[in-house]
């Protein structure tokens, strides 16, 4: 029902600090756009600008093709779910959900039917008379969602809505939010610093760093083709291994410990990236050997159940390698790690993908 | 959990006499605190202390009540009996209908009305003004916001007594002597209450304010629907304090009221007492004293329910 367009949006706070430095995003109708980035990168600031809670220093924000820069939060037809839920503590669950509708002059019978219908989808119908303090964290979270849904707005805005829940509940709510959003078909912007949440929820992933966008794309595209070393290190756990790359006089590229890369390496490449799961251990027969082969020393082994992570060292560089299941490798062992050319990522000296 | 591990430790060191002594108690350790509170000696001691406290506080009031039910002759001839006398109706009806000659025959009813109007006026006026000014200072951004805050703050250092002459002059010029407005208005401006509300408002999370904005609540809606209900504990507490502050005002009512009809009960009491014992209608003084303490007690008891409820329901 609505598209959201950000055009060169900037935010300079009163103290002169520039929190958002020219951001442009075009969010298509019904899409769930996730803003992800480290703490302090300006995600919340950007979301609050879309909500109308923060003024826009320059640039334009449009909802459904209409510029909303000078429209207050009430009239933008958006609903927001806050990190600490921000439920009205003195109102019952019912009143919390009904409040926004009442303020907009919705007729009473309609308010009642909408609140009850929403409560039903969120399994809150038994709790309508309770006060927020009588609810568990997860239930409060649902009420906050309900308060947004019941208004049937053009856009949902979420600011780290799951960060106060325990890991299990978070996983559960993640799925629920995704389903709700898909069923309701409401364009949404979702802020998180949790890359797992970002990967699983997003139709459109926006990676931010220090007020600028590093990359926009579908989650798997971002994962497979990170636009910069920042994205490479931010998306994925454990993060991509990054190693310095040098070009020899004879045109061959070498990495730490003098290992050569067989195959074409772009001229500008200065950094080599390798995801932990793309490294093959132990190296298969020489005939199948990949473009890169690294002799490493294992420093630590981390079994996490269905997989194990080997922390290895080579000539001062540290590399993490994922192996499936339980590993027989012991700390102190020496290994040969291999990787195919198509699994290698190359970045220039500024960290841009080449 | 803790209890189970206690038991394990205890059984692992059976030979230690201290632990062995303790171990039979361990299953009940969760109730240890309760048991101290419930030991009979403790209960008796606690009650004895409480009763002693009540007696010390209540006895003078009781004695005043006793005195208010005796005739002037009985009061003036010591010792005063310890039990109420037969003059209850006579004394009370005389006082209520204006038997006190030293205050121009004004009935205590009039005094009570005057004092109630003043105390309510001060309490409500102060709360309204201070909650509104705190609302403006905390939730709005306007030029010279902090200047206004500091100006309000500075008035803390100027209590009524300090600015009494200019205030009196203003009241005379405005023709407010012997009026309720004259009694109430100069005592209304309050920095303390403004500060209190400001501190409370600053603890309200910004997210709540923003949620209300997104929900379409303008400044007034936010104030009435959210801020006021959340402040009710504070308001109740402040109301009690300010009502009693207004009720016990002495200096200002003394200056600003001349006619006996406009006296507050405290002023009237003072006027009823003469230096010469024989001149003073002590039985009426006692009646007036008893009547003077009833409204504050009612206010405290009524409001106490409110703010105990507020404390129990502490909602943030
Ligand atoms: N009102 C403000 N005045 C000045 N600077 C601010 C203000 N609010 C935020 N900032 C700054 O703007 C930057 C971005 O803040 P923002 O809240 O958007 O971060 P974030 O990406 O949401 O981080 P987090 O994940 O920790 O929530 C931070 O460096 C912060 O210090
Ligand atoms: Mg944030």
Brief overview, please?
Chain B: Part of the ABC transporter complex UgpBAEC involved in sn-glycerol-3-phosphate (G3P) import. Probably responsible for the translocation of the substrate across the membrane. The complex is a heterodimer of chains A (354) and B (316). Chain A is an alpha+beta fold and 354 residues long.
The percent range for helix content of chain A is 10-25%
Low-confidence stretches of chain B: 1-33
The count of strands of chain B amounts to 0
Work out the helix count of chain B. 17
At the fold tier of CATH, the topology name of the largest domain in chain B is: MetI-like fold
User: What is the terminal separation of chain B in angstroms?
Assistant: 29 Å
H/E element string of chain A? EEEHEEEHHHEHEHEEHHEEEEEEEEE
The CATH class of the largest domain in chain A? Alpha Beta
CATH superfamily of the largest domain in chain B: MetI-like
Key phrases:
heterodimer; A: 354 residues; alpha+beta; Rossmann fold; OB fold (Dihydrolipoamide Acetyltransferase, E2P); five-stranded antiparallel β-sheet; 19 strands; B: 316 residues; mainly alpha; 2 domains; 70% helix; binds adenosine-5'-triphosphate; binds magnesium ion
Description of the molecule:
The complex is a heterodimer of chains A (354) and B (316). In chain A, 24% of the residues lie in helices and 32% in strands. Chain A is an alpha+beta fold. Chain A has 2 domains: 4-234, P-loop containing nucleotide triphosphate hydrolases (Rossmann fold, 3-Layer(aba) Sandwich); 241-347, OB fold (Dihydrolipoamide Acetyltransferase, E2P) (Beta Barrel). In chain A, the strands form 4 sheets. In chain A, strands 6-7-8-3-9-10 form a 6-stranded mixed β-sheet, sandwiched between helices. In chain A, strands 13-12-11-14-19 form a 5-stranded antiparallel β-sheet. In chain A, β7, α5 and β8 form a beta-alpha-beta unit. Chain A is elongated. With 316 residues, chain B is mainly α. Chain B folds into 2 domains: 41-86, no CATH class; 101-314, Orthogonal Bundle (MetI-like fold), CATH 1.10.3720. Chain B has helices at residues 2-12, 17-22, 32-38, 40-67, 72-76, 88-96, 108-139, 145-154, 164-173, 180-188, 191-202, 206-214, 219-230, 232-247, 251-256, 265-272, 282-312. In chain B, α7 (108-139) runs parallel beside α10, α7 (108-139) packs across α11 and α7 (108-139) packs across α14 (232-247). Residues 1-33 of chain B have low confidence and may be disordered. The A-B interface holds A 48, 51, 53, 72-74, 78-80, 82-90, 99-100, 103-104, 131-133, 147, 151 and B 205, 207-208, 210-218, 221, 225-226, 229-230, 313, 315-316. Bound molecules: adenosine-5'-triphosphate and magnesium ion (MG). The site of magnesium ion (MG) has 3 residues of chain A, from α1. Chain B: Pfam families: BPD_transp_1. Chain B: It comes from Aquamicrobium defluvii.
